[in-house]
Structures are given as structure tokens and as C-alpha cells.
Amino acid sequence: MEKGNQIYEGKAKILYETEDPNLVIQYFKDDATAFNAQKKGTVADKGVMNNKISAKVFEFLQAEGIPTHFVEMLNEREMLVKRVEILQVEVIIRNIAAGSICRNLGVKEGLKFYEPVLEFCYKNDDFGDPLINSAHILAMELGTREEIAIIENYTYKINELMSRFFANLNLDLVDFKLEFGRCNGEIVLADEISPDTCRLWETGTGRKLDKDRFRHDLGNIEEAYQEVLERVSK
Ligand code: TMP
User: Fold this and answer.
1) What is the reported pLDDT for 2?
2) What is the architecture, at CATH level 2, of domain 6-82?
3) Is 229 helix (H, G, I), strand (E, B) or coil?
4) Which CATH architecture has domain 85-221?
5) The model scores a pTM over 0.90
6) How far is the CA of 197 from the centre of ligand 1 (A)?
7) Share of the chain above pLDDT 90, in %
8) Is 100 in the pocket of ligand 1 (CB under 6 A)?
9) By 3-state DSSP, what share of the chain in percent is helix, strand and coil, each rounded to 5?
10) Among 38, 92, 117, 163, which is best to mutate for testing ligand 1, by the most ligand atoms less than 8 A from CB?
11) CA of 198 to the centre of ligand 1 (A)
């Protein structure tokens, strides 16, 4: 698949056109940012590892009946994906308390929630991706009532599937962020699913194997991503 013009560059990925207007190439960079890009750095081969990990997770979810933008892996840093119109909403689901919910609500890190917590954020860096609810989504025309219902259903289902998937690899799925797109009138899962977008703790030890190692300078970032890649590749 020939790489055409760049369509978009985000903090961790670049999208390129292909000769097929319905398909784009998603290139994974080594750049890492945290806290709305106040903290910046690079993680050696993060792009390669996230491309491979995302491909594995998308393949698994696709096989379980979740529509995704994933088509195929092209090479170490690039996957072919369907062209979608990304909704300007980030969907977060949390099984265990960590990160912003601890800062915002005073819950203790590690608290196992009685039920998963689903959150929406407005995908807008100028405002630091603030938390919103479905009323904001409707009022700001970020999505329709029907789309919100579909996205919520998919997100709970994906949480069940991914929690099982990672539990089998001895990893606790603490929380993760999803992005959805519109493709031929359908809602499909898009973006990436990787240690950049999920919190993964080793079962039993609680060892953090995700981007919190970068966010909080815990060291051994590359090793943590590599370990997740090895586990999903088994
Ligand atoms: P948070 O606790 O910082 O709100 O993050 C919740 C989850 O969402 C965590 O798994 C990391 C992921 N996430 C992203 O993928 N992108 C982001 O910009 C943020 C803030 C979080």
C-alpha cells in the first residue's frame, strides 16, 4: 500500500492517505506526552510496540464481534485502517481507581470499583480534554443520542472482553481510553489500544506496565511495554 499525503499528525501517531480513499495508514511515533503535553519525551521503539500491541487487541476484539477500523499490520510501525470520522469524544472506562479520578474525587488508588465507571471527555487539547456528560455531547452536537447508546454498549462489552483477555496474560486492566469513528453510517472502534491508552497492572504484584511509568518517572518504560508485547504475542 503506497503512502500518500499526510492527513493528520497527533501526539503519538501520524495518518497518511493511500491510493484507496477509504483506507489510511496509521504510523506510530516514539513520542510520548503526559498531562496535556506539559511533559514530553520519547520512548525507544514505543511506536513499534504500540503498533503490534494495538494490532493484537483489535484482532481479538474484531473476532469477538466489535467493529474496528483495523485492517492489517503493514510493517513494524504502520497499520492499515479504515478512514473514519473521529468523534471528538474520548471514552474512558475504569475498573480500579487510578490517575485523574483519584485526583478529582479523592478515591484511593487501587480501589476496586463496585461497577465500572464510564466517563466521557471532550477531545480538545486547548481545554485539557475536560470531563463531559451525554448532555454536553448532545448540546455540542459531538454525537447523537443513538451514537451515545451504541458507544456505551460497545465500551462495556469491550471492557468485559479486554479484562478477560488481559487477565489471561496475568494483567489487571485498571482503566483505558477509547475513541470511536463514523464509517459508512456505522460506529467503529478507532485510534489505538496500547499501554499508552490502558493502565495495566501485573496481577498479584500490582507492578505498573503502562504509560504511568513515563508520567511519573518510574523508570524501565521500554521494558514495561516490551513485557506487554511479549504477553499479548504468546
Ligand atoms: P486518567 O486517569 O489520566 O484520566 O486516564 C484514564 C485512562 O485513559 C488511562 O488508561 C490513560 C488513558 N488516557 C489516554 O489514553 N489519553 C489521555 O489523554 C488521557 C488523559 C488518558
Assistant:
1) 86
2) 2-Layer Sandwich (3.30)
3) helix
4) 2-Layer Sandwich (3.30)
5) yes
6) 6
7) 99
8) yes
9) 30, 35, 35
10) 92
11) 7
